[in-house]
Amino acid sequence: MIKKIITFMIILIAASFSNVYAREIEQRPHWEKQTISVYIPEDNKSAASMMKSAFQRWQNVSAGHIKFNYLQQGPADIDVIFSDSASSADSPISNTTISSNGNSITKSEINIASENNSFKNLDRDYISKVMQHEVGKALGVPINTKKKTSIMYIPVSEKQNIMKIDAIKLFSISEWSYGTRKINK
Questions:
Q1: Between vectors from CA 36 to CA 78 and to CA 115, what angle results, nearest 5°?
Q2: pLDDT tens column, 1-33
Q3: Cα Rg for the chain, rounded, in angstroms?
Q4: Which one of 44, 111, 137, 169 is most buried, counting C-beta atoms within 10 A?
């Protein structure tokens, strides 16, 4: 009987730690709207195309919860800027800023140093992963400090992808049910 009580208490304690972690993720700023407007300048066609692909990847992961509406000119909810320089702890060629009101993201700006010579010498796969990482940040997905293959791990590398853990975090912060999602193909 004592063994059952101890086992029950251990399960109860573990569940409470799990719930604290889940609430911590859910309380992160996130977009409260389903359709998010995006402005991507078309000056650099190659970079613009790669950036749209990064947004499309996250739209697919959201299983219909998010739709990106591309505008011909800014400002938009998420503005992409192609510039000479941009850097952060995550990447030497990118930077994302987020504005929020309480737990609601109201504006994001993704800066990509596509006009920089070092950008032009980088592998396209690496650039694609950096763009996916920055879109994740613009959506409020937290950095992953443990799983090196997660797109939200830093520093970004070519070996990273949007993984199930990234999708779960997006669903969690947005308060969507991951278990009942429908996968968009």
A1: 30
A2: 777 666 655 665 655 544 444 444 446 899 999
A3: 18
A4: 169
Q: Give me the CATH number covering residue 48.
A: 3.40.390.10
Domains identified in the chain, total number: 1
Query: What's the number of CA atoms in the CB half-sphere (13 Å) around residue 181?
Result: 23
Q: Give the residue numbers spanning the domain of 68.
A: 31-180
Measured N-to-C along each axis, helices 124-138 and 45-61 cross at an angle, to the nearest 10 degrees, of 50
The helix/strand/coil state of 161 is strand
Task: Please give the model's pTM, rounded to 2 decimal places.
Answer: 0.82
Alpha helices in 107-161 (DSSP H): 117-120, 124-138
Which residues have CB under 8 Å from 122's CB, separation 6+? 93
Query: DSSP assignment, residue 151?
Result: T
Alpha carbon of 35 to those of 32, 42, 50, 67, 163: distances in Å?
A: 9, 21, 20, 5, 23
In a domain, 64, yes or no: yes
- Identify the band that residue 117 occupies on the pLDDT scale cut at 50, 70 and 90: confident
State the DSSP H helix or E strand holding residue 98, giving kind and residue range, or none if neither. Answer: strand 94-101
